[in-house]
């Protein structure tokens, strides 16, 4: 079964180092909480808000052990007025036997506002 695992994090400023370090932090937390092995990951999509253009978040994911050959793609988030600024979102597509309820979606920093319904899960 192919499942999606969602995650999001915010940065304090449009700086390459922070974009890359926060992306790596989020990705590692998603891997940890879901006990992922890179061999089971089909792909990773990363979106950023319009105010983030100082670096490629995918660069930090490709540096994680085992992710050299995992397809990773960056894109822009839809710029909806009033949406959360300085946000990085990740969608991991993983082959797993886990049910939807067993998947742990990860929201860090100000991004917890995106899915308050998942805070207690």
UniProtKB/TrEMBL annotation:
The answer to keyword Nucleotidyltransferase applying to this record is: no
Q: Name one GO molecular function term.
A: chorismate mutase activity
Q: Short name of one Pfam family for this protein?
A: CM_1
Query: A GO biological process this protein is involved in?
Result: amino acid biosynthetic process
Q: What reaction does this catalyse? A: chorismate = prephenate
Which UniProt keyword terms apply here? Amino-acid biosynthesis, Aromatic amino acid biosynthesis, Isomerase
> Which residues does the record give as prephenate binding sites?
6, 89, 107
Enzyme Commission (EC) number: 5.4.99.5
**InterPro entries, from UniProt?**
Chorismate_mutase_AroH (IPR008243), RutC-like_sf (IPR035959)
**PANTHER family from the UniProt entry:** CHORISMATE MUTASE, CHORISMATE MUTASE AROH
Query: Which protein are we looking at?
Result: chorismate mutase
Underlying gene: aroH
């Amino acid at each position: 079964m192919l499942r999606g695992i969602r995650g999001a994090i915010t940065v304090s400023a449009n700086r390459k180092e922070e974009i890359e370090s926060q992306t790596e932090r989020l990705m590692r937390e998603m891997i940890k909480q879901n006990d992922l092995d890179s061999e089971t990951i089909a792909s990773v999509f990363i979106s950023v808000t319009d105010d983030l253009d100082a670096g490629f978040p995918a660069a930090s994911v490709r540096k994680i052990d085992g992710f050299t050959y995992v397809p990773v793609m960056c894109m822009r988030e839809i710029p909806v007025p009033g949406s959360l600024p300085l946000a990085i979102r990740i969608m991991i597509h993983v082959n797993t036997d886990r049910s939807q309820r067993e998947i742990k979606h990860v929201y860090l920093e100000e991004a917890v506002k995106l899915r308050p319904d998942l805070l207690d899960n």
